[in-house]
Each structure stands twice: as C-alpha cells, then as structure tokens.
C-alpha cells in the first residue's frame, strides 16, 4: 500500500487539498508531524472531525527514533504522514522516506502551500531570494551563528533572506533531562523582536556588516491565516515590534530590491519615508561598492 506525505497548508483544517483529504480518509493510520510547525487555526480534534479519523501526534522522538512504528505494516495498509505547510517546505523528512523505500513501501507526496512560497504575499519576488536560514533560541552559553555567513553571502549578491524562527515543543529543562524526568516545558515560538535582537547581537560580535541596524526587513506573521500581518521597517524597528501570536518569519532585504517590490512593501511600512530612505541607502551603497570594485580591477590590469 502507500505511505502518503500530505501537506496541510498554513492555517485552517480546510487548507488540505481535495486529493489530500481523500487520501487521509482511506488511511488506516494518520500521523501529524507536530514539532516543526503548527496549524495556527486548528486543533488535533478539529482535524479528526474533518477527516473522520484518529490523528496521532508524531513528536521528534517518534519521527527520528521510532519510525518503525509509523512504517509498521505500511506494506499492507495505507498510512498518512501529515506535515503543516508542504512536506518538502524547509524541513524534509528524508530519513523516513529512505526507510520506507528500503522496506519497499511506495511513497506518494501530496503538496500544499508552504511558508517558502507564500512569503511572496509580502510583495518580495521569490526569484530574488537567496538561501533560507534558521535562527534558534540563544542560550547563555550557546549562540550558534552559522546563519550569519549565509545571510552575508545572500546580501553580497543583493538577494533577500528568509529567516525561519525557532519552535521549541516538548523540550525538557536541563534539570529534568539530567534527572530523567519526562516533564516538558510549555511550547515556545520565537517572535520577531527576539529574532531581530539575536541577529543584531551576532552582528555586534562578528562585525563583518552582513547587515546593520538600518537594513530594511519585513516581518511575516501568521502567514496564510486571517490574522496575517506584515510590517516593513529596519532591523532596529523589528527589535521593537510587538509581533503577537505565532508563527513568525523575518525577511532581510537584499540591495537588488526591485522598485515594484518597494512600492508593494510601503503599504506595510509604519514610516514610509524612513523605509524608502533605508532601501535607497542600501541600493546606493551597493552601487558605490560596485564602482569601487570595477576601478580596483582596472588598476590591477
Ligand atoms: C521548519 S519550518 C516548516 C515549514 C513548513 N513545513 C512549511 O512548508 O511551511 C517552520 C518555520 O517556518 C516559519 N513559518 C511556518 N509557517 C509560518 C506562517 N504561517 N507564518 C509565518 N512563519 C511561518 C516559522 O518561522 C516556523 O518556525
């Protein structure tokens, strides 16, 4: 039979495609991947009511270490693995697919909207994006910053960066982990303010001008839901935002911003003049840098 990877889209239970819904309804077991994203406007019970099927929450432990449970008997019965957004949006469950293939279980994917493409709703063109990066919650003694180099690479060639923000579900405190107590902390979703502050902290440490406090950005909140909200401003503005309920992502603009993109974004800028100035400053700085590089090359010849 088939292991279906089904995208649920971004917000409401009804965002599932008709093909996805039909597949779920014929599956013997239905798992919902519940640690890389959340369906903002639906509970497990809402999904169960729509599908007429029990939904089993699949946490990281089950997907990464207990995949035999998900794949059990899938040679003989249909099993659905539901992923919020698209199954191949940002996080891919490649391990699970490889294991299914090894067991001779056919895999079929039913796609849906993902943050990776719906982000275009803010007015920035998907063609102008570079590498996507993820930002995790910093701890006092753990501040991973590999995203910094990726953002710098994107911005050096003028491209926008989609920054995905950490989600912590079913995490144990160090104390509970050390004592082997299966007590979990409440879920935490990184907001725009924290993301911007962490980005600035790393710039202050690295000082390679991957971005500055004046770099134009767009906050992407609750994309695809009725509460969707975009705010255009500088990175410093983002650190002061009250971005509200999750989920959130942040886009750091590149200097190749097209004027149509800017025109669209102005709708979301609290201070339109200041936002235009911030964008123009970056465009001008890039133009001057190009001239300087060309002159240097000429001198070398
Ligand atoms: C690891 S990615 C999973 C992406 C998902 N599979 C998809 O295709 O959309 C999860 C991160 O994407 C971002 N994200 C997902 N859905 C979002 C939404 N509706 N609005 C804003 N950001 C979102 C958040 O930063 C979240 O922490």
Describe the structure.
The structure is a single chain. The chain is elongated and about 70 Å long. The mean pLDDT is 94. It has 301 residues and is α/β, with parallel strands linked by helices. Strand 2, helix 2 (44-51) and strand 3 form a beta-alpha-beta unit. It is built from 12 helices and 12 strands. Bound molecules: S-adenosylmethionine (SAM). S-adenosylmethionine (SAM) binds next to helix 6, strand 7 and strand 12. InterPro entries: 4pyrrol_Mease (IPR000878), 4pyrrol_Methylase_sf (IPR035996), 4pyrrole_Mease_sub1 (IPR014777), 4pyrrole_Mease_sub2 (IPR014776), Dphthn_synthase (IPR004551). Belongs to the diphthine synthase family. Residues 3-238 form the Tetrapyrrole methylase domain. GO terms for molecular function: methyltransferase activity.
Shape summary: elongated
Strand content: 15-25%
Structural class: alpha/beta
| Percentage of residues assigned to helices | 25-40%
Give the ordered list of helices and strands: EHEHEHHEHEHEHEEHEHEEHEHH
Spatial strand order of the main sheet: 3-2-4-1-5
What molecules are bound to this protein? S-adenosylmethionine
Residue windows where pLDDT falls under 50 for at least 5 positions = none
The total beta strand count reads: 12
Can you count the helices? 12
Taking all residues together, what is the mean pLDDT? 94
Biggest beta sheet attributes: 5 strands, parallel
End-to-end Cα distance: 66 Å
Gyration radius, rounded: 22 Å
Family: Belongs to the diphthine synthase family.
Pfam families: TP_methylase
Organism: Myxozyma melibiosi
Protein name: diphthine methyl ester synthase
